[in-house]
Structures are given as C-alpha cells and as structure tokens.
Amino acid sequence: MPGPARRLALLQFAPAAGELQPNLDRVLDGMRSAAAAGAVILIAPEMCLTGWTLPDKALRARLAAETARVAVPALSEAARRRAVTVVVGGPLPAGGGVGNCAIALTPAGGRAVHRKLHLFGPEAAWWAPGDHVEVVAAGTAVVGPLICYDGEFCEVPRMLRLAGADVLAVIATNMSPYERDQDAIFAARALENECVVAVCNRVGSESGWRCFGRSLVADARGNLVAQAGQGEEMLLADVMTAGHGDPALGYMAHRRPGIYQMLCGAGPAPAAVAPQRAIPVISPPAAEGDRAPARHEEVRT
C-alpha cells in the first residue's frame, strides 16, 4: 500500500573547508528550521561538516575524530529534541584510515552510516572505501543514505531498496559540468526503484571545484517535485513514499534476479556472438519504362 506523505528538507549550502564547528552549527540551525517547517527528514550535503577537499592526512584524521566525538553526539541529540531525522556528510575513522561518510541519525536513536563505495577523482587517495550499505527506520519511513557518485552506479540504490529503503537520501558534492547528469540519473533511480530519491548537493567553490547545487527531490514515478537553484537555500518538498509507482510497470515486482548473476561474476558469461558482416543486396533492374532507381539494402549475416 502507498505510504503517507512526508515533508523533506534539503539544506543546500557552502561548507567552510577544513573546519568542523561552523559547519556543524549550520546543520544544527537547519534542523531547527526544518522542524519549524514541519519536515521530518533533513538532508545536508556530502562532507558538509568539514569540506570535501582534505588532501592532508593529519587534518583528515583530526577532523574524523572530532566528527565522531563532537558532531555525531550533538546531531543525535538534536534529532531527538527536534523529532527530525538528519542525514549529513562528514569524515569518520574507518579501518585505520578515514571514510567519507553519510551519517543518518533518527529521533529514536537509530543510526546508519554509509561509507562511500566508489571514489571520484582525487578522493581515491584520501578515503578508505566502504563495502556495504545500511538502512535505518525513521518513523514510518526507511531511509537509505548514500553518497553522490555511488548513486550513479545503479546497483547501489537497488541494494538499498532491496534492504527496505523507501527514501534514498543522497548527499552530494556535484560539480560543473555535471548538472544534466544529476537531474537525469537521480530521476531514473527514483523511477526504476519506485521510491523517493532526495539529492542534497552543495554550492560554492573549493580547491578549484565549483559545485552547482540544484538539489532535487524525485517521486516514485521519477518526477522532479522540487528543485533548488544554485545558491544557498533550504528546499522543502512533500512527497508520497514507495507504493506510488506505476503498477503496470512493476520494476521491483517483476525483477528476475536469477538471471542477473553475471553482473556479480557469479553466473555464466553471455555466449559469444560472431561479428556481423554486411553483404550488399541490389534489387533487380527496373522494368522497361519504370525509371525508379535501384534499391540498395544490407543483409546482416
């Protein structure tokens, strides 16, 4: 059955690079504003607690420790006090290194941490990649946090959906010239997974990268129901949850996972197909008095 309508808030802003407290204050203020506006979920951008470009190893480690020690408890308490689930981006210690994380915290004390799986460009040298996805119940919703580039691989949103998520909360640091990609990809992820997808992108420039904002919310039919501009703002959107897809399409119900094993290297590879060779075929000459040109076709063998 279709789920109830929910109000989402997306806090699109330009984080201060290399600092925690000013960015944490922005998110805490955003939670207060979101609660006042009747939102039940607030999403903030990728790495918005510290900034995204952190090539210095010692700085990454220090900010990750501060995020775990200071930011996570403060955000968890604010979630409880404001009755708002928050999904926010920041670094956390991970396996002897540091992970680029989406941290989801609920009013009831629930927590899911998504460590970025696919690392884009220079961040491959900065972060320890993750190896799984997590979801968390947030009232009547199930939130699946994920990060920017991960959402561009169709398998990751599908894993979250199969784990029960009906709201995919995407935190992003999308930069020009990928405006069109963001619109097209995440509308498709909503449609094919028959659930809400909310993308909170940052704005501003950092180390030569210019982020364009344009945060968006897509419904279960892939329609963009709300989209931000290219400056700082809080975007509000009222959305219906999973169950509002087109039953005639039924992408989730009509899946055939038994034939998808090849995608994971577990099934047989597709049979080889010999290269096709084009043989020109020329139609017979036209009858006397018929001056229509000969017709040329190709037959594939």
Task: Kindly summarize this structure in a few lines.
This protein has 301 residues and is α/β, with parallel strands linked by helices. Helices cover 22% and strands 30% of the residues. The N and C termini lie far apart (50 Å).
Q: Fill in the CATH topology.
A: Nitrilase/N-carbamoyl-D-aminoacid amidohydrolase
CATH homologous superfamily annotation: Carbon-nitrogen hydrolase
Low-pLDDT residue intervals, each spanning 5 or more residues: 278-284, 286-301
* Main sheet characteristics: 6 strands, mixed
Got a strand count?
16
Helix count from the secondary structure assignment: 4
Describe the structure.
By secondary structure, this protein is an alpha/beta fold. It has a single domain, classed as Nitrilase/N-carbamoyl-D-aminoacid amidohydrolase (4-Layer Sandwich). 22% of the residues lie in helices and 30% in strands. It contains 4 helices and 16 strands. It has helices at 21-36, 57-82, 155-162, 179-193; strands at 5-12, 41-43, 85-94, 97-105, 111-115, 136-138, 141-147, 167-172, 196-201, 203-206, 209-212, 216-218, 224-227, 233-240, 278-282, 296-300. It has a 6-stranded mixed beta sheet with strand order 5-4-3-2-1-14. Strands 6-7-8-9-12-13 form a 6-stranded mixed beta sheet, with helices on one face. Helix 1 runs parallel beside helix 2. The longest helix has 26 residues, at 57-82. The chain is globular and about 50 Å long. The termini are far apart.
